[in-house]
Amino acid sequence: MKQFDSAWRTVPRPLWLIAALFAWLLATAWLRPLMAPDEGRYGGVALAMLHSGDWLVPRLDGLPFFHKPPLFYWIGAAAMAVTGPVEWAARLPSVLGGGAAAASLFFFLRRWTTVPQALLSAVVLVTTPFFFLGAQFANLDMLVAGCISATVLLAAGAAMAKERGEPWRALLAGAYLFAAAGLLAKGLIGLVLPAMVIAIWCAATRRLATLRLALWLPGWAIVLVVAGPWFVAMQMKYPEFFDYFVITQHFRRFASSGFNNEHGFWFYLPVLAGFTLPWFAWVFVPRGKDGTAHARLSDVDWLMWIWLAVIVVFFSLPRSKLVGYVLPALPPLAYLIAQRVLAGRVLETLLPKVRVMALGAAAVCIACVVAISILSSPPGTRLRLPVGQAVAPGDQVLMLDSYYYDIPFYWNLRGPVLVSDDWKAAALDTRDNWRKEISDAGRFEPERAARTLIDRTQLAATLCLPRTTWLVASNTAQLTHPWLFRAQLVAVNDGVAAWRFAGSATSDPHCLDAAPAPTSGTNGDE
């Protein structure tokens, strides 16, 4: 029995444990191409930040992109400064967010519960497919989830340590630091959600006096010093920033029904149940017969139940819902599942079963990544230019009737592309799509937008120059743009094609008017 107890209670040194968590989450981050639109968008903005040297203003196709703050882009750009534009570097911010969530959960539970509970909770979390995939998806959801998790756990740890006369200021300073990081990761939710969780927990556990820690001045100094300068700088540079970033992207988006992905209030319940299998199945397994009867909820139990409920209810209220929004609910759910696994069971007989379960869950995680890499590779990631052909420094790239987020990343473009569309109509569009994103970005720098966003009526003026243009469009674009038969087809797949257009040596404004009839070999070969 002593040997078994040692297997549960002897844990790796903190640095080794953290290294193992990050290594596991990073293990397959290189395996699949970036998915459009999210991964191509956020990875592309980070790469553009690196190429432009402007580390202050996030830019989508050269235009200020203020949907979210810059922390994700800072981390991604710094990683790609070392590695170049590779997938795992674009996903590193999410890996760091997942690692922060898992590490903070383990250390909090090791201090305030038991080592078996801490170990199993961390294992459940990092081998849950939902969490594993979220940590390898290049968008902002896992990064802010990690910040929220660390903030909640550090703040709760500080509160309980202070009650017991233990050192608490470093923990509370860490909570404020991660709250500031959450603000820079995804805006107000990085601060508001942890505050809601802690406030309700303090009320439920009758520690209202602890709420005075919310007014701890050194903590607010940390928030202002870390997060404040970027927001102030953006407001000074762009007077419309506050209205767009705070009012539109936070409050209007939360309350409005004009955005995409509308689902019912119940949406996240099946999401959490289905995407956390096989571990979620333990919810339906009766408690073990050994051990004492189930005790009343501890302070940690209250924290986890309240944390889970706040996240799920908060993101269930707006009509617009995305799966990744609820990622901050996974650490408390992992704790509750681990508690169910351990409840009333003898550790000696449980350990082999847990090992098999963890290996099976890990295998499911890997299988999901492999399946996604095979089945969900977007067309743009497969549109590679043939060997020997590349966009030269003086060439321009123009996308027709769509914006392919992953092309700038995979072609390693160092400047914005031109995008042709009906931009007057796009400015009036209320739908949440690529046109609105780029059109909104253009409002902050109209002169730059006028050079980048090409109206369909201005195509001839843009292309009929003594300059090479690389054109990217749907592989059926020649049906609506017959002048493309004048261009050389250089790459094509089942969704997208690329052409090389030599332009007009004489700047003939009518170079697109008469297109030759298609003949064999006119378009060149891929």
Task: Please give a structural write-up.
With 526 residues, the chain is of the alpha/beta class. Helix 6 packs parallel to helix 16 (347-375). The protein has helices at residues 2-9, 14-26, 38-52, 71-83, 87-112, 115-126, 129-134, 141-163, 169-186, 189-204, 217-237, 241-255, 268-275, 299-316, 330-342, 347-375, 407-410, 423-428, 434-442, 446-452, 459-463; strands at 59-60, 63-64, 396-400, 418-421, 453-455, 469-474, 488-492, 496-501. It is elongated, with a radius of gyration of 26 Å. The strands form 2 sheets. It has a 6-stranded mixed sheet.
Report, as a whole number of angstroms, the end-to-end distance.
67 Å
Walk across the major sheet and give the strand order: 5-4-3-6-8-7
Question: How many β-strands, per DSSP?
Answer: 8
Number of helices: 21
* SSE sequence, one letter per element: HHHEEHHHHHHHHHHHHHEHEHHHEHEEE
- Average pLDDT over all residues: 88
**Which segments are poorly predicted (pLDDT under 50) over 5 or more consecutive residues?**
1-8, 519-526
Structural classification: alpha/beta
- Main pleated-sheet profile: 6 strands, mixed
Instruction: Estimate the global geometry from the Cα principal axes.
Output: elongated
**Could you tell me the radius of gyration in angstroms?**
26 Å
Task: Please state roughly what percent of the residues sit in beta strands, choosing from under 5%, 5-15%, 15-25%, 25-35%, 35-45% or over 45%.
Answer: 5-15%
Helix amount, in percent? 40-55%
